[in-house]
Specification:
72% helix, 68 residues, single chain, 0% strand, 434 Repressor (Amino-terminal Domain), mainly alpha, globular
Length: 68
């Protein structure tokens, strides 16, 4: 699921939830909810998160598709 891939990418980038939130322009709580699959990011937010984690949105989505 997307939340799990966001978490994997965040950890691979060596970021805490708080650091990712700061760099992406959202709250730590929002990042937590995304990782728990309780929220879905907008396209703009997904792009901001990917930029902060230095991963392309295509890579992240491909990882989600691979899980299916």
């Amino acid at each position: 699921m997307l939340g799990e891939e966001i978490r994997r990418a965040r950890l691979k980038a060596g970021l805490t939830q708080e650091e990712l939130a700061f760099e992406a322009g959202c709250s730590r709580n929002y990042v937590s909810l995304l990782e728990l699959n309780q929220k879905s990011p907008t396209v703009d937010m997904l792009l901001s998160l990917c930029h902060a984690m230095r991963v392309s949105a295509a890579e992240l989505i491909a990882a989600v598709e691979k899980e299916r």
